[in-house]
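All the exercises in this workshop are built on plain-text protein records. A record pairs a protein's sequence with a compact description of its fold. Read left to right, the backbone structure tokens trace the chain's path through space. Once this layout is familiar, the rest of the handout is easier to follow. Here is such a record, shown just as it appears in the course material:
>
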Amino acid sequence: MKFARLGTPGTEIPVLVEGDRYLDLRSVTSDVNGDFLADDFAARVSAARDAGELPELTDAAALRIGAPIARPSAVICVGMNYAAHAAESGSQPPTIPIIFLKTPNTVVGPNDAVTIPRGSEKTDWEVELGIVIGARASYLDSPEESMAHVAGFVVANDVSERAFQIEVSGGQWSKGKIAPGFNPTGPWLVTPDEVDHRSLGLRSFVNGEPRQDSNTSDMIFSVEHIVHHLSQYVALEPGDLILTGTPQGVALSGNFPYLAAGDVVEVEIDGLGRQRQEFVAWEAKK
């Protein structure tokens, strides 16, 4: 199944995506949120669809695409999870997952404009596979238990400000990760049965020029390992979002310029969709 949320920020309509049809889920849930995902959502939606209780949203094409999940309680990220990206960053591949946090207000629609922070000269892109939690995970006994706690997968762009992340970080990365809108997500939440998360092509482009081109099979730590590992330190709640790291091909490598106002970034993952953001200059509010 593929789920999306359509409409203006704060009033998105939850929908089931079937080909070019968008089926209104408001008879089943008010939103694609933790409560919905924790309550056998796939079976409930299947039953409602089969009973003819999901009318088609006829104006769907005219609506903004929101993030496919409502604001999560946590956004937890894995750094340096592709060896080639670690190398281009000047680091050795990690032996245990490197973890940092983004704030929930970074999660925005896949095609929303992204504001370059005030004073930023090193805003960067990062295409990533995102995991959405569907059942509470705490102290899992093994990685084999992890997928029972996964609702689905999303495309994410872990937008980063490298000077904030590295040069003025004090040793923690989150300063460069938490500007508003720094986590475009979607367009869809795709259930695990729809894709093989172990082998998904993921790519990024800046102004139409290719940047990243890799596969999730190159991740150092697998989805299963990440969920199990995190569960030893934090209780993952339904609706939480985990970003699994990015491959090589970012501006931090020194091979490409950082982003400037007017640049357009596109990121995509096989089976999970494509997103597009225009980067805009920060302006003081009047």
